[in-house]
What does this fold into?
Amino acid sequence: MFSLSWEQPFYFYCLPLAVLPWLVQNTTKTVAWQGFIPLDVWSRYLHLMARLLISVTIVFLLLALADPYIPEQTIERTRQGAEFVLLVDRSRSMDDRFARRPLNTLPRKTDVKRSKREVAKDYLAEFVRRRDDDRFGYVFFSTKATEILNLSYNKQAILATINAGGLGKGISKTDIVQALDLAISMFEDQTYRGSRNILLISDGGQILTAEQKNMLKQRFQQMKINLYWIYLRSMRGMTLDPSDDDSMLWIDMPERKLHEFFKKLGTPYQVFEAGSLEEFSHAIDEIDKQQTQALIVDERIPKQYKHDIFLWLALFTLFPIVLSRLLTLWGATHHQKH
Amino acid sequence: MRVSYQKRILFTAISMLIAFTLIAAALWFPLVPRDVDITDSIFVLDITDSMNVKDVEIDGEQVTRLEWAKQFTKETILAMPCGSHAGLAIFSESRSLILINPVDVCTTYHDLTQMLEQINPHMAWARSSEVSKATYTAIKQAKKIQPVPSIVLMTDGHESPPLNPKLFPKFAGTPGQVHGVLVGIGGDELLPIPKTNPEGDLDGFWGVNEVMQKDVYASMRGDLQEYYENKPRTEHLSSQKKSHLATLAARVGFAFLSSPDDPNELVDVIKSESEPIVQTVDYDLYAWFSGIALVLILLVFLPYSLFSRKRNPSSVHD
It folds into this structure.
């Protein structure tokens, strides 16, 4: 567990400098005859000790300079939350104005003037900000699905990705099958940590082939993924579930077909039909409320620098040396006076 | 010259005492605020077909221009001081698409590099490559981000369909309002461009008759026939279009950097081009204190006698 990494490992090349005290003595005194010096075992030990302490001090200082640190670590904790892949439609139709009033009604001041994509961006960002412990991934799709952000705990990264999704114009049409397939595959090779969700944000439907239906069904059940669909209604009044006052035109809408299929998916599925800002924010609130199961989260422990330990050690080993040197100096000057 | 014993022990005692004090200072001296220039930038990577030409090198290995662009972007992000922000975008057709708004290069390094890895030719949503217009859309979108980032566009400058030399796409903005750098990628030799099918997989090379050799305007007019008859039909081949990139850079008020070797060079250009934000970071001076302490201790144990004997052999006997 306690493994140090080194920021400036080239200081290790200087470690041989620690032998200098054993090779060089600059504070020796010329004595006329060796015999004058009394044989003192204690002083010999002290001398060895002093050299050793200096060597060790040099080593400690070099180790401190090499800047040891414990790298950023992740620890698994259990929190309340869920894992979400945000599957965001980036087709051209998302450039259209959100909750546009029907052409035969008078404009009101409360009309939203922003595109569906901008509105979706704002609410997603709001949702992500609220959910502290969740892990988010981001996929956008048009005719091709592109995984932009792997499942990540980094709030800054996911928010910046969501905000980037609100810029510019849409690309082309949509292919929901490929998009869902890619979103599911983001959970593959991942240990099961807790509730897995795909949050599909789209304004269109698609008629699927039997083959595609089977494939999606199998994949969703196998991976235990919940599906949420925030459907940005393009036609006012139309609902995904058939109602009594249906217009003839709505019966075969691809959105309805897709909704029918999702209901038979065999995995928890919920749709939110957002036709106004209130409905959209309600949908986001509802998902927020539902997803509070236990989730294993990785908690990051930031990089910690440990050079202080070696500085302390160097301070302790150098202290007796400083004392002895001051004593020597005091002794020499004192001796001279006599 | 030989220093007397008295002076030697005096010097030793003093340097040891100072070294001790410096180590204590290394431990307890407060962090010093220091100003660092940081920048916000968005790296726009060209992912059009011509970027699949293998005429650049990473460590002596021939790689595609796109791989080089990805590697160089990664190194540049790494070379930026913490606190700097970097975003990523791709361009295909005539538009730049921002994938992530600028985020801190240190705390989000992992996510940024992962996203960078994902960028590939499959992401292209159309097969044309209109560099000038893509630059304009990048500028337009950058203005919507606060603070406005600089744009670093990595491209070979290959325009397909070709531009009419007299009818440059009009730039609606003010040159220099958004800062940026065009980074030119690719060799000088004209090479065949790998072709991608609608799924984005490589599938042969573009043939001479498969691409537009004339710009749209000229192909509809008869009076320029003569000019185009003498012009070589090379639009299916690609090299780094330096003069075009330089013209484009001048038009939008960007700098132009052709095939840089060192990511630090690009970081410096980004800094000098944009208006860096000064950020104060707390700086630990411990390395200076402990370094000087170490030098002082080593000074005591340097083999001076070796030097002094060589220089003044007589002084040994004083």
In short: Chain A has two domains: 5-71+303-337, 74-299.
